Amino acid sequence: xxxxxxxxxxxxxxYPYTQDTASxxxxxxxxxxxxxxxxxxxxxxxxxxxxxxxxxRLILVTFGYLLVKIRLGLRVYGKENIKENKKLLKRGCISxxxxxxxxxxxxxxxxxxxxxxxxxxxxxxxxxxLSWFVNHIxxxxxxxxxxxxxxxxxxxxxxxxxxxxxxHLYAEGSMWELYRYIxxxxxGASQIAYMANKPILPMAFSYRRPGLIRRKIFRQEALLxxxxxxxxxxxxxxxDKIELTRKCHEEVVKLAGIQNNIYEPIYNNxxxxxx
Length: 275
Known about the structure:
The chain is α/β, with parallel strands linked by helices and 275 residues long. The protein is built from nine helices and seven strands; from the N terminus they run H-E-H-H-E-H-E-H-E-H-E-H-E-H-E-H. Helix 5 links the parallel strand 3 (118-122) and strand 4 (139-142). Helix 1 packs across helix 4 (104-112) and helix 7 (188-196) packs across helix 9.
């Protein structure tokens, strides 16, 4: 099925988007005393953890997929780009997308099923109220202000990918719910792609206008669509993470159906643009 390009902007007024395009507006009342340092199990291989992980995966597949389809009105286009490259993807893959909803990682899981991805997350997400869920759904915290922890994280992520894992990244750096435009990308996905020699699968969330019942009764501002693009293969003979990130950003913008994106492709302390 070909990509279905939609061009609906919810123009939501609910969310206090920050001035910095990569900053988080979500606030946790209390954070657990969990240290994300070089001893943190970024890829947890304990049997008890894996058992709980598989149990949560079963619940996600059974009920979570139904929830995102009904509640978010989720539609997926471009799955043939996964089917046609299944053998290559089984050897390890990095996917990227915009980050526009609290539940959008469940939507990503649904879109790429039966693959079971991990995802890089904000460090506070493994310390907040939903820390157990974030950990067991495959969340890998990005260490803040700890270079030794970052080195360990990158090493474990690289090995995970080399062994056939699937890693999802939100290249914008934070979640802005129902935001239309594609914000500038950080270069982490490109850096990891070069490190592990794995392809990047671009994906994009776009929006559809809800019907009258959803708008008036459920106060729903938008329905979600995922478009899955074609694989981007990093050129190991020409390692340029800026150029690769620029290409990824361009593809996500195209998949989101945006004709004139208002942001630069590469994050450089970028600021929110009012429109």
